[in-house]
């Protein structure tokens, strides 16, 4: 018998694989947290599946999401990224990836890790919502508002509350798996 899954992922093998193995799983590793930060900021205004389908292209174009390298991208590298048809070629988002890498390292320096900083917005443990239908899940919360505001104050770009809530869902700061989804209790 097939396991019950969140309705949003059904029918697309890539979406289902992402749902089953990654979405909502608590991430404490700074490198992975940065990868999702890049992907979520590029997702702003687009569908997540669009970004997911380009994920490996992003990984290749952005040096495996190595924030230490990205923080030092020069104009030639930025220009080459803007010519890369495998990614979303948005000048402001590409520039934001560089800026966010720089700010990311500043946060690491201040807090010891980005993970320690970001998980502080949920007191170190995932918020478990009781979502019956994914369409009823919030798009922002007080926590995503606070995170967005603090990141913006620190100079991060493309980190509005809606983007940050999607980020929080992706990295497991929030468990918004539908209540009858098999992953709801597993995570």
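-> sequence recovered:
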């Amino acid at each position: 018998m097939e396991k019950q899954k969140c309705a949003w992922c059904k029918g697309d093998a890539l979406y289902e694989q992402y749902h089953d193995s990654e979405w909502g799983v608590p991430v404490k590793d700074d490198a992975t947290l940065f990868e999702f930060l890049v992907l979520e900021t590029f997702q702003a205004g687009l569908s997540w599946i669009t970004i997911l389908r380009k994920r490996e292209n992003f990984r290749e174009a952005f040096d495996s999401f190595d924030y230490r390298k990205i923080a030092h991208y020069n104009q030639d590298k930025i220009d080459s990224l803007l010519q890369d048809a495998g990614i979303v070629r948005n000048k402001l988002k590409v520039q934001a990836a560089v800026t966010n890498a720089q700010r990311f390292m500043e946060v690491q320096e201040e807090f010891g890790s980005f993970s320690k900083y970001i998980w502080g917005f949920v007191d170190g443990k995932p918020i478990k919502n009781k979502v019956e239908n994914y369409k009823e899940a919030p798009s922002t919360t007080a926590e995503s508002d606070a995170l967005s505001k603090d990141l913006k104050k620190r100079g991060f770009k493309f980190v509005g509350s809606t983007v940050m809530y999607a980020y929080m869902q992706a990295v497991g700061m929030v468990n918004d798996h539908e209540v009858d989804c098999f992953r709801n209790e597993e995570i």
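The mean pLDDT is 96.
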